[in-house]
Amino acid sequence: MAARVLNVNVGVLGHIDSGKTALARALSTTGSTAAFDRAPQSRARGITLDLGFSCLRTALPPQLGPGPGELQFTLVDCPGHASLIRTIIGGAQIIDLMMLVIDVTKGMQTQSAECLVIGQIACQKMVVVLNKIDLLPEGKRQSAIEKMTKKMQKTLENTKFAGCPIVAVAAKPGGPEAPESENPLGVSELIEVLKSQAYLPSRDPSGHFLMAVDHCFSIKGQGTVMTGTILSGSVSLGDNVEIPALKVTKRVKSMQMFHTPVTYAMQGDRVGVCVTQFDPKLLERGLICTPDSLHTIHAAIISLKKIQYFRGALQTKAKFHITVGHETVMGRVMFFGPAPANINEEIQENVFDFEKDYLYQEEYLSKDSVSSEENKENDQAGEVQLPKQQWALLEFEKPVTCPKLCLVIGSKLDTDIHANTCRLAFHGVLLQGMEDKNYTETFLPKLKVYKQKHKEGQVERVMDDYSVIGRSLFKKETNIQIFVGLKVKLSTGEDGIIDGGFGQSGKFKIRIPDGLKPDTKMVLTAVSKKKSKGGKGDMTKEDESSKNDSALPVTISLIFKRYVFDTQKKMIQS
């Protein structure tokens, strides 16, 4: 029986030119087909344009179980170019352990920070690699490394990677032009650190097969090979797999893992799957899966959290680049939170409850957005309670194919690449996809998101003890009939009911079932007397003072809620 091989996927992330590819090359013993800058423009420009994969095999460390065996690190070299961040996000979904590569002469840069954010969302463990130590003058090298190590520890202390190992190396002493005979520095120490950090990732062969394909090419006389990493489930020789983006199903003819033929592969494995009669040009990267297991959706409900380093508010109706599955598309968002009555309820994870009411939000609520609101209102600085969970409706500009409950990342990738700012805005989980093209009619009416409406008007005059005439609540052209029967409250405390329109100018009649209070009548009589007195010129000093005392207008308050997706636009009062 062959010795067991445990595969751990290690993401090599960092700012452009920090030496990620050189590090992956120094570490690896077997290059996989997608490895090391295969794109011609990539080689010409000396930067990685797509995820490169290679592997490093070493003896199984004792913490990973007894018996002989090998530990295989699949190194996923993620591009550092800012415009290629969508590729990194695609790669981060398959990473167990992350190496953040930092140019020791430059420290944290914009994209190193973005990579750190992606790592926090998608990954459990990290090793920081300070690369290019050969560029430090030998006499000052040690102190410079110590200084940068302290700096990095400080940067990481408020992240989930606080206290992670930091290793100094020179992956390619002398730079890209140096002869191959130059031995890398610190790489064997780094391999030992990687072995100490390796863990048994939780792998589950059950469930639907789903694989992220990152490379597709043909082999004469064999067929088309799709290489990638299995995200869930397992695959065996002879299985049928679907390429959902093309609605094509093919049979698995043969499989390889790093040049070794295999008959079975499962979640977490890096594998090449060979099928026949399929043009590789049709699929450069994407997903393949158990037939009919993925859905293609036009919109989705997600639970989400804002990324703390993103500057600026997340506004409803704004457009973001939405990365879901292995695709990035433009999408418009609408944020909503729990109804005030449910704000303290425990939220079930990864489930969306269509029975509940939700409150529409103009923006995602965070400490920053709440404090700016407070400054505007200049209110008593009471603690505003933030909801435990917020959600968003995403509407995609074109349909996307993805698994259920997958990771979603929203970003502003059109922000200036050279601006020193984090472009990742929020991350979340896809809870419910909408497959019907006409989801606005068939699906959205089930989503009970409401807006709280508050209108104010004034009492114009008293008709009798049980009714008054109101104004300024409706525009002249409003159909008052639809408001008949709604409850209102007067600022003097009485409850009333809208009884109908009065004349043509938007005035209306209010019935007061319990009758007007004597004080209210006095106030209203004062108001109407003042109105019926002559023009302004006749106003005496006495009138002036009585105006300030009692003749404050009596306001009418109408509060109701309206469900955003209710086709009949009904007004509802509790």
From TrEMBL:
One of its GO terms (cellular component) is cytoplasm. Keywords: Cytoplasm, GTP-binding, Hydrolase, Methylation, Nucleotide-binding, Nucleus, Phosphoprotein, Protein biosynthesis. Its main location: cytoplasm. It holds the Pfam family GTP_EFTU_D2. Residues 528-547 are annotated as: Disordered. Residues 535-547 have a biased composition (Basic and acidic residues). This is Selenocysteine-specific elongation factor.
